[in-house]
């Protein structure tokens, strides 16, 4: 199957692209190469090969989760510039309606 210049012009019209004559010829060659490459991949794909998402198997490289004690309220607020009612106090950014 070969992509023709007329087919590229039709696709350009559908995509609302203004292509010149030299661009139509250039894209016809490129699209034909792309379609040929996809056709070759489809020929290679066999039904006895399971689909994969990665070429190599993935392994988890993260450490295991460990339960650790967290900071208490007083310790967390100790470095805050301002605290109020056991919370961080920050400047108001929204007006109340």
From TrEMBL:
<dbReference type="GO" id="GO:0070681">
    <property type="term" value="P:glutaminyl-tRNAGln biosynthesis via transamidation"/>
</dbReference>
<keyword id="KW-0547">Nucleotide-binding</keyword>
<dbReference type="GO" id="GO:0050567">
    <property type="term" value="F:glutaminyl-tRNA synthase (glutamine-hydrolyzing) activity"/>
</dbReference>
<dbReference type="InterPro" id="IPR003837">
    <property type="entry name" value="GatC"/>
</dbReference>
<dbReference type="GO" id="GO:0006412">
    <property type="term" value="P:translation"/>
</dbReference>
<keyword id="KW-0436">Ligase</keyword>
<dbReference type="GO" id="GO:0005524">
    <property type="term" value="F:ATP binding"/>
</dbReference>
<comment type="function">
    <text>Allows the formation of correctly charged Asn-tRNA(Asn) or Gln-tRNA(Gln) through the transamidation of misacylated Asp-tRNA(Asn) or Glu-tRNA(Gln) in organisms which lack either or both of asparaginyl-tRNA or glutaminyl-tRNA synthetases. The reaction takes place in the presence of glutamine and ATP through an activated phospho-Asp-tRNA(Asn) or phospho-Glu-tRNA(Gln).</text>
</comment>
<dbReference type="GO" id="GO:0050566">
    <property type="term" value="F:asparaginyl-tRNA synthase (glutamine-hydrolyzing) activity"/>
</dbReference>
<comment type="similarity">
    <text>Belongs to the GatC family.</text>
</comment>
<dbReference type="GO" id="GO:0006450">
    <property type="term" value="P:regulation of translational fidelity"/>
</dbReference>
<comment type="subunit">
    <text>Heterotrimer of A, B and C subunits.</text>
</comment>
<keyword id="KW-0067">ATP-binding</keyword>
<keyword id="KW-0648">Protein biosynthesis</keyword>
<dbReference type="Pfam" id="PF02686">
    <property type="entry name" value="GatC"/>
</dbReference>
<protein>
    <recommendedName>
        <fullName>Aspartyl/glutamyl-tRNA(Asn/Gln) amidotransferase subunit C</fullName>
        <ecNumber>6.3.5.-</ecNumber>
    </recommendedName>
</protein>
<dbReference type="GO" id="GO:0016740">
    <property type="term" value="F:transferase activity"/>
</dbReference>
<dbReference type="InterPro" id="IPR036113">
    <property type="entry name" value="Asp/Glu-ADT_sf_sub_c"/>
</dbReference>
<keyword id="KW-0808">Transferase</keyword>
